[in-house]
Amino acid sequence: MKSNNNTNNTTDISNAEKATQVLVELHEIKKIFYTDDVETHALNNINLTINKGEYLSISGPSGCGKSTLLSLLGLLDNSSSGRYTLAGHDVSDLNRDERSAIRNKEIGFIFQAFNLISDLTVAENVELPLTYRSDFDAKQRAVMVNTALEKVDMLHRADHFPSQLSGGQQQRVAVARAISAKPSIILADEPTGNLDSKNAQIVMALLDQLHQEGATICMVTHDPRSAARAERMIEVFDGKIVADQLSQTPTAIAV
């Protein structure tokens, strides 16, 4: 009997540890867009689990649904049906304000077009999402901004404006903005799409480093070389996940 109890306890602990590692869970997610009399099924019965600390890429041809999937993961939109759990909370049917509040706390975004505000300095751009958080005062925000900019080697440009930066530098500032509040997950939408090969390598190396430090990253990309840098590769076709496999040659190191 003693042996059986030990086995059961070990199983319980293992299951509990496994449960705490789940960050994102999508169950039977569908997204349908309606235009006049036409229904477009952008996502069909998506089931996906992302654990804390994972680095995964989502790829597929144009129009396959990968950007729609990232939009739902980022709480920029709601699904038509299905369940989405983020950090243990069901976020499937939130209204716009509720989605915005959770998005600001749990999710960091890196966009292809950088999305920096032209009349704000580098530091002000990084600080902007933090100003919507009541749990950070001005002194805390300043420390967080400086820490994030130092991590991407852009602290020396804190008082510059986006127009004074190269594309690669602007994307590094965008990375700093995404990580400043230490979100639960970083969502990167074609983060190297507007960069030359040299700056693309710099940004991808930053993502590798963030992953090595424990960040959870989900990246949409059309570049197979960038996709292969992730430890897990997902392929989407016609609104469905058609492949979910470990990368054969990941540059990122699992923590």
Instruction: Name the strands of the widest sheet in spatial order.
Output: 6-7-8-3-9-10
Structural class: alpha/beta
Termini separation comes to: 37 Å
Estimated radius of gyration: 19 Å
Give a description of the structure.
The chain is an alpha/beta fold and 255 residues long. The protein has a single domain, classed as 3-Layer(aba) Sandwich (Rossmann fold). Helix content is 37%, strand content 26%. The strands form two sheets. A six-stranded mixed sheet has the order 6-7-8-3-9-10, with helices on both faces. Strands 2-1-4-5 form a four-stranded antiparallel sheet. The protein is globular and about 50 Å long.
Topology:
Blueprint: H1 2-21, E1 22-35, E2 38-51, E3 55-59, H2 66-73, E4 81-86, E5 89-90, H3 96-106, E6 107-110, H4 122-127, H5 138-151, H6 167-179, E7 185-189, H7 197-212, E8 217-220, H8 224-229, E9 232-237, E10 240-246
Parallel strand pairs: 3-8, 3-9, 6-7, 7-8
Antiparallel strand pairs: 1-2, 1-4, 4-5, 9-10
Please describe the structure with a list of short key phrases separated by commas or semicolons:
single chain; about 260 residues; alpha/beta; 10 strands; six-stranded mixed β-sheet; disordered N terminus; Rossmann fold; four-stranded antiparallel β-sheet
Q: Can you give me a brief rundown of this structure?
A:
The protein is of the alpha/beta class.
